Amino acid sequence: MSDEVDVPEDHPRYQSLLTRHRIEAGVEKGITSTQGLIAEGRGEAFDYLLGEETIPSADRAARAAAAHFLLAEHPVISVNGNVAALVPGEVVELAEATDADIEVNLFGRTEERVRAIAAHLREYGASEVKGLTADARIPGLSHERAKVDRDGIYDADVVLVPLEDGDRAEALGEMGKTEVVIDLNPLSRSARVATVPIIDNILRALPNVARHARDLSGSPRETLTEIVEGFDREGALDAAERRLREGATRESE
Ligand code: ATP
Ligand code: MG
Taking the model in full, what pTM does it have? Predict the structure, then answer.
């Protein structure tokens, strides 16, 4: 990936510049919305405060997320324009590691963008991408924002919704789904309503969930259930908030 942006890899802001470049390229390619640019800026500010690293509580959340995915009957990874621009290969890898579906699901849905994202994901090796049928609705949301595939998110028992807006995260929760949210802001409603909030940059979190999934694959269901039940979501949110407010001074993260 080092050739995709003209910045030396030892530049202190290399990762951040690369991220911005990917989002910008996503906008040019028609897969990311201009709203996505704003979301990216907000995320960066939180990541800066987190120390741009996966804190221990976020790693535990990633492991719990992996266990949920492995226990699930029908896990689905929801993909929006930022996710597609930033981590297309990692989405495909996680789907393969956990036998999950991939579904494009957009806040500002247009048929054209759904198609562009699906094509982009296929370039990165996805065999099937859902989200185009849009023959079911999430109850409690206005028409366009509610559209999902009946045999995708609508049917899923576990959904990974990275960078989701709070409204839809809440509505999915009300459908009884187990929700894994990746969001750098522990105060955002999406993180607050999640069964498993992973407060981390999606660039680090997604490969981390896949790594845990590979590590846990083949584990007995009891082991996975123990991991799921032992996860402390309030504790994870609190630990992330403490890190944001006080920096890396506490031990109990
Ligand atoms: P709500 O409280 O309803 O959830 P919000 O302000 O979080 O509102 P959005 O505008 O959808 O709603 O915000 C996008 C979210 O995505 C922000 O919380 C931001 O921190 C997060 N975000 C942006 N980039 C990344 C990233 N690379 N990794 C993880 N999270 C990110
Ligand atoms: Mg949010």
Answer: 0.94
E strands present in 85-131: 101-104
Q: Given ligand 1 and candidates 165, 180, 181, 198, which is best to mutate, with the most ligand atoms within 8 Å of its CB?
A: 165
Residue 1: band (very low, low, confident or very high) from pLDDT cuts 50, 70, 90: very low
Average pLDDT over residues 158-185: 94
State the angle between helix axes of 56-71 and 221-230 in degrees (0 to 180), rounded to the nearest 10.
140
219 Cα–ligand 1 center, Å: 33
Give the integer Cα–Cα distance in Å for 128 and 138.
22
Q: How far apart are CA 160 and CA 139, in angstroms?
A: 18
Beta bridge pairs of residue 103: 78, 130
- Is residue 11 very low, low, confident or very high in pLDDT (cuts 50, 70, 90)? confident
Q: State the pLDDT at residue 251.
A: 53
